[in-house]
Specification:
The complex is a heterodimer.
Chain A (H helix, E strand, L loop, with lengths): L1 E2 L9 H9 L3 H23 L2 H17 L11 H20 L8 H6 L7 H4 L4 H12 L2 H11 L5 H8 L3 H21 L4
Chain B lengths: L1 H22 L4 H11 L3 H19 L10 H12 L7 H17 L6 H8 L10 E7 L2 E8 L6 E6 L6 E9 L4 E9 L4 E6 L7 E7 L5 E6 L3
Antiparallel strand pairs in B: 1-2, 2-3, 3-6, 4-5, 4-7, 7-8
Helix pairs in contact in B: 1-2, 1-3
The chains are: A mainly alpha, B alpha+beta.
Amino acid sequence: MKHRGDAENLISDEALLSGIAVGDERAVLIFVRRYQRRLFGLALGILGDAGLAEDVAQEAFIRILRHAAVFDARRGSVTSWALTITRNLAIDASRLRRAIPVAPSDWVFTNLVSSDIAPDDALVASDASSRLSVALGQLPIEQRRAVVLASLYGRTAAEIAVEESIPIGTAKSRIRLGMARLRVDVVVKETP
Amino acid sequence: MSFDHENSTVCEEISSDLSEFALGSLTGRSRSLVLEHLSSCAPCRGELESLAVVADALLELAPVVEPPLGFEQRLVEKYCAHVPRRRAHRSLRLASLAAAAVILLALGFVIGDAAITHHSTPASTQSAPPVTAQLTSQGRILGHVFVSGAHPAWIYMTFDEGKWSGTAWCSVTLKNGRVKDLGSFSLTNGYGAWDASIDVAANQVATAQVTDASGHVLATAHLSA
C-alpha cells in the first residue's frame, strides 16, 4: 500500500492526463485529488455559493477529463488550463444567475495576497504565482481591485467602471498600469 | 520606415487593450482588433506572452478550499455517466505506471507490495463500472471508497472527516467470506488517502474495513449492492 504523500506526487500532471486519455481510472482519481481544492476554491471565490461552486468545479473536471487527450503542453501548463476552464465556467454561471454581477467581498482581495500555500497545493502553484502574491500586495488598492475584477471575475473595463463609479478610461488605465507593474515584478525581474 | 512607424502607432493603441485581452476580459470589436494586430506583430505577441504569465498566475492565487464531503464520489459517478467505458490501453497505461515506479525506485522510495502487484499483473480486460461507497462509523460519513472495475481490481480510499491520527489497517471481505488484509497506512487528524490492488474482481468485494492496531473498527464501507 502506498501513501498519497509520496508516490502520487511524483507523477506529473502531463503523465496523469496521458493516463486519463487512455481510460486509466487511477489517473483520474489522482488528478481529481490533486486539483479539487484549487478548482473548488476558485469557483467558490468567484461565485460565493458552495453548492453552485461544486457544480461548476465538477463540470470543469468533466471537461478536463473528457478533453485530456487534446491538452497541448506547448500552450501552457495543466494548472493554467484547468483553472481557466473553471474560471470561465464560473463566470458563465455567475452571469446566468444574475443580470448584474455581485460585487466580490473584500476578503477575496485580501486572501489573494496571502502567500500561505499548503504543501499539497504547492504542487500546482507556480513560482510566478508566489512572486505575484507579493507583487499584488504592493499595488495600489485601486489597481489591485481592477486587475482582480478583470482576472477572476471576467469583468470588462466598462463593468468595472460602473461598479467602481469611475470613468471607463480610468478603469482601463488601472488594469493596464496594474498589469504592467505585475509583469515587471513577476516576469521581467526574473528574466536573466 | 513608414511601415514601422505605422505599426508602432497601432502598437501603442493596442497596448492599452493588451492587458485586458490577456486577462480574458476584452470583448467585441476591441478584441477583434487586438487579434488582427497580433497576427502580424511579433513584439506585441511577445508582450502578450509575458502578460499571459501574469494572468495565469493570478488564477493560481485564488483561495484553496476543501470541497464538500463526497465531492470525489459524486464526480466519479458523474464522470462514469458521461464517459463510455473504454478498454484501457495496456501499453500506454503500464508504461506510465512503470515510469512512475522507476522514478520512485530511483529516488529510494519503498513501494508497497500491493502497488507492485498491480503494475505487474496481466493486462486489464474490459472494465466493469467502478463501485463507490461511503466509509462510515456509527452513521457518520468519514470518507469514501472507490473500487475500479478493472480485473484485478484496485481500491482507493479517502478519509476527509474525523480526528483520528495514527496507523490504520485496511482489509476487505469478499462475498465468499474470505478476508484479505491490504496493509497499514497513516491517518492524520482524520485525513488520508491511499490505494492498493486486490487480486479479485471488483464485484467480489463485499465490504472494506479500517481498524486501529487493537482491531477497533474505525470505519466500514459496504460495496455490494
